[in-house]
Design a protein that fits this description.
The complex is a heterodimer of chains A (266) and B (236).
Chain A: H1 9-17, E1 33-37, E2 45-51, E3 54-65, E4 76-82, H2 98-113, E5 123-125, E6 129-141, H3 146-160, E7 162-167, E8 172-182, E9 191-198, E10 201-204, H4 208-212, E11 216-223, E12 226-233, E13 238-239, H5 240-261
Parallel strand pairs in A: 4-6
Antiparallel strand pairs in A: 1-2, 2-3, 3-6, 5-6, 7-8, 9-10, 9-11, 11-12
Helix pairs in contact in A: 2-3
Chain B: E1 21-25, E2 33-39, E3 42-53, E4 66-73, H1 88-101, E5 113-123, H2 128-142, E6 152-159, E7 162-165, H3 169-172, E8 180-187, E9 192-203, H4 204-234
Parallel strand pairs in B: 4-5
Antiparallel strand pairs in B: 1-2, 2-3, 3-5, 6-7, 6-8, 8-9
Helix pairs in contact in B: 1-2, 2-4
The chains are: A alpha+beta (266), B alpha+beta (236).
Amino acid sequence: MIETSKLNAETIKKYLAEGKRFDGRQPDEFREISIETGVSKNAEGSARVKIGKTEVIVGIKMDAQTPYPDSMDKGNLMVNAELLPLSSSKFESGPPKFPSIELARIIDRGIRESKFIQLEKLCIKEGEKVWTVMIDIYSLNDDGNLLDAAGIAAIAALKTARIPKYDEEAERVLFGELTDKNIPLTKDVPISITLHKIGNHFLVDPTAEEEAISGTRLTIASSNGVIYSMQKGELAELDIEEFNKALDLIEKTEREIYKKLEKHFK
Amino acid sequence: MTKKSDFERPDGRAVNETRKITAKVGVIPNADGSAMFSFGETIAIAAVYGPRKMHPQHAQDPQKGVLRCEYNMISFSVNERIRPGMNRRSTEISKITEWALEPVLMLEKYPTAVVDVFINIIQANASTRCAGINAAALALAQAGIPMKSLVSSVSIGKLDKQLVVDVSKKEEDWEEGEGATDIPITMTPDGKITHIQLDGKISKEQLKEAVHLAREATKKIYEIQKDALRRSVGEQ
């Protein structure tokens, strides 16, 4: 393990060429993941996830709203993310910039396309009132891989969230009063794994130093070999052979991470 | 393993057939480079201004020029009017477009400058970001921006279990069976991926096959793009 705190791109790449990382991990190894739920009591559900020193907090809020015209009998999903200035000197205060917009949209697609939330069971009164599930993601400390941390926290928060009471006569939600019903979810959990390419080497779960020199990243939300969403980001190209190898690595990692976190997702 | 070669697409196309493609270079006289690219009823125009001085100054890169793309759909390009202005989707697609194009640009010759690419979708019938990227590549070439090559973009779809090339709106909204999976991909002529996204539901094996189909389709699109550039030179 290297003592020095000033790791430059050359040192990181040198170690990778030997299949090593400066914190002793293998390229296909995640840092320690911890999940804590019910961390913010006024939310319908919440979770704090740490991956190494990276930390995010996700909360679920629900509200009864009019449905969208093309889904009159289904609930709605909204995902928002904020990269808080307190989580890194990289982030400035102000309206959301592209990185937070992208993070929210990537997590949204993984959950939406997998149909993890059974939106058809969130109808209160067809054509008039449905439940909207609002997932809000906040970074608390950015030491790389906020994407995967946010994905895990969103799932954990959804799993433990309870639906608030709804006053049918007054037609409003009784915030602060929860039923004992959970949000209806399917059993196939969409796990987001981001693979990075640094030079010619693939790795998962980068630290902030590794992420800063990443050439390109591929984020896939999948469950049991079924892929629901994918996003390639940043500038390095991938030839078809590399892409196929990336898919294999992500599938393997997803299975390992799911096994690790299974007990949290029951 | 593309099953069912007698699969019926809504517009009767073969599974690996794109819609009618038109590409024309030099459509906006004021721009340094411009082009129109269409897949059937999806029409994109792109205009390049630059290299030019980058504002704000703090966004300048002293090592090389910066590529800045802005994609947006015009309000009446779709059935239900889109409120004018950027939204989260167009912000994301703008960045995706930058990532799709920048790997083939050689901007070292223009430190502190910016190359602005503006893409507007005039009429939308799905695959708009792909049409936009194809138009932008042509516009950059016409503007004389030094490029290693063009890039070519296409959407691969999976309708229930069937892979198809160049997804139309009806196909994007496919509801039978497993519904629709949409995979926009951009590749260089020598088969490197500069952009890929996916939403829907697909196995790893079928995804690998989808990329193979994209390789074949982007080769054909590349020929059409080159042809459009040749014609524009001929017209001068």
